[in-house]
Design a protein that fits this description.
Strand content: under 5%
Distance between the termini: 67 Å
Shape: elongated
Number of strands: 0
Number of helices: 12
Helix content: over 70%
Largest sheet: none
Length: 203
């Protein structure tokens, strides 16, 4: 019966941190070798998530984000993505922030998008710092604010993000949002080049 099956799934999940159970969940979700059952897949993702399996947590978050097998619940998806961010995988939370800003697959929510990026910034995720700086610098999706943009660029640079180095170098070279300072621009280009940024090497 269903209770015995769930007990068995719990035992399977405890053996290898939910890896085998995750594969079973995929079979149910896709209908591989079994009748497609997205609700059952979600239940198995939940068991895997409860056992700390990162892939299961991400997949469960995706189910809630898209309303796939469960009612759509963006806040629940955010909760799960934040959990895996703490565990070392920040990609799902970052990607969701971008989709919220653009309104891809869900209602646009600029404030929530910025809030999620700021959470990642506090976690020293340079990709989030650079994304915020890009939006503030260009005034795309958010009101243009070059002071905030430069601050985000600088934070990303301090963490070694070479893309931010190149972009800020360009701002110094042209005096865009900062006083023109070609010496500073050259220093940033050289720093990025030393760290392997090919774009900086040809400047």
């Amino acid at each position: 019966d269903e209770k015995k099956a769930n007990d068995l799934f719990q035992k399977v999940a405890s053996i290898d941190n939910g890896s085998r159970l995750f594969d079973i969940a995929i079979n149910y979700k896709k209908g591989y070798g079994v009748s497609q059952d997205k609700r059952k897949a979600t239940e198995l993702y939940q068991i895997g998530a409860d056992n700390g399996n990162i892939r299961a947590i991400v997949s469960l978050g995706e189910c809630y984000e898209k309303g796939d097998g469960v009612p759509q619940d963006i806040e629940k998806a955010i909760e799960l993505y934040q959990k895996v961010a703490v565990m070392g995988d920040c990609r799902p939370l970052f990607d969701l922030s971008v989709r919220l800003m653009k309104g891809h697959g869900m209602p646009q929510d600029k404030e929530k998008s910025i809030e999620l990026l700021q959470i990642l910034v506090k976690m020293d995720i340079t990709r989030a710092m650079k994304q915020l700086s890009d939006w503030y610098m260009k005034g795309k999706y958010v009101p243009q604010d070059k002071v905030k943009a430069i601050d985000c660029f600088q934070r990303a640079i301090d963490k070694g993000n070479t893309g931010a180095m190149v972009e800020l170098a360009e701002r110094f070279a042209w005096g865009d949002g900062v006083p023109q300072n070609k010496k500073k621009a050259i220093e940033l280009y050289q720093r990025a080049a030393v760290l392997g940024n090919k774009g900086a090497m040809v400047r």
